[in-house]
Amino acid sequence: MRPEFKYEKEVTGTANARKRKLGQYRKIVSNVYNNKNASIAEIVSYSKMSQPLVASLVDDLLGFGVLLDNGIGESIGGRRPNLYCINPEYQYVVGVDINLHTLTIALFDLNNQLICREEFKSYDLENSSAYTDSLVDKVNGMLVKMNVASTDVVAMGLSIPGLVDTENGISFTHLSFAKEGLKAYLSKAFGFSVIMDNDARMMALGEKAFGKAKDKKDVLCLNLSNGIGLGIILNSKLYSGKNGFAGEFGHILIDPDGDLCYCGKIGCLETLTSGAILVKNITEAIDKGQPSLLTEYKAEGKEIDLRAVVKAILEGDQFAIDQLNKMSEYLGKGLVTLIHLLNPEMIILGGRLAHVGKYIVDPVNMVLNKYAMDRISSETEVVCSDLLDDAALMGTLSNVMKDVLK
Fold this sequence. Notes:
Elements: H1 15-35, E1 38-39, H2 40-47, H3 51-64, E2 67-72, E3 82-86, E4 92-98, E5 103-109, E6 114-120, H4 129-145, E7 153-160, E8 164-165, E9 170-171, H5 182-190, E10 194-198, H6 199-210, E11 219-224, E12 228-234, E13 237-239, H7 275-287, H8 293-299, H9 306-314, H10 318-342, E14 346-350, H11 358-371, H12 374-377, E15 381-384, H13 391-405
Parallel strand pairs: 4-7, 7-10, 11-14, 14-15
Antiparallel strand pairs: 1-3, 2-3, 4-5, 5-6, 8-9, 11-12, 12-13
C-alpha cells in the first residue's frame, strides 16, 4: 500500500494521463511543503511548467483542500503575488518509535507540528502478535482522542531496532512473526500505509530534517541507548547499503577474546560499550558494596535502568561517571575507525545516553585526540543531539513525507 494524499484518489483518467497529472500535483505540493509557502511564479520556476498550467493546477489543489491561500507576499517588482501554503489539517502523519523497553507514538500535521505525543515506559518489545495488537490499539486510541479518522492519516512512519529490509517491509530482528512482513501486517491492521526503517537510520533522517545535521553533508548519527546504532549521511543523503543493513556499528569486532554478543558473534563493540552494559556494570558493582547515589535507589527496591543511571550522572555520581568514562574509551576507539574511513564533518550522539551531554562528549573527544589522525579528526565535531529521544520519531515523519512527495 503506497502512501498518498486523499485528493489522489479523486484524480481520474487513463493510466498515463492520471500518472502525469499526479506527478504535476506532487511537484507543486512538494514545493509548497518544503518552502512553507510559494507564489505561482516560484512554483513555475521550480516545476518548469507553464504559468497557465501551474495556475490551473493550484486552483485544483485549492479545491481539493490540500492547499490554502496564504495572503499576499512581498513585491519583487510589479504586483504583489498571492502565496499558497499547505493545509496543515488536510491529513496527518502517525509516528511510532519502538525501543526495547519503551514505545512512543505521535501525531503530526502537514506543517510538521507535533499534535500529540504519548510515551509508554516499561513496555518491553516482544516478538508476538499480542505486542502489535497492543500497538494498534494505542495508535487507534490516540486517533480517536484527537478526533482523526484513519482516512485522514496519509501514512504511519515506524522506527524499530535491528535489521530491517525497508524495501520489502520486513523486520528480521524484532516482530518477525508475521509471514507477510511487519509492514504489510500493520498496514492491513490500520487501513493506511506504513513506512518502516531501522531506528538509527530514522534518527539520522530526523537530524537531517530537523536537527543539527540539517545543513551538513557528511554526518554520523549514533543511537546510544541500550544498544548502539548508527545512521550514516553521506553527501546529504541517507546511506543504507545494498540490503538496507548499513550501520551495524555496535557489531564491529573489538575484542576477539571477548564476550559472546546476542548477535551470536564474539567481542562486538556492544559487549563493551552500550547503555545495557553500563547498567550491568554499575548494578554488579553496587551489589558488591560499591558506594553510589544509586545504592539507595536499589535499596528502595527500584530497578536500576538507563534512565536512573543518566540521572545519577547528571547529579554528579562519581562512580557512574567513572563507569561512563571507561565505556567511552571503547566507543571512542570505534569512532576512530569510522572517522578514518568516512571523514565526517560531524558526529551526533543521540539516544538516552545523549542526555548526559558533556559527560560523554568530553571523554569521547579525549580518545579521538589520542588515537585519531589529527589532520582528519580535527575537522570532525562531536555533539549531542538537541532532539534527544525524539530524533527517530521526527525521522519517521521525514521518511513519510519524503515518500509521499517523491
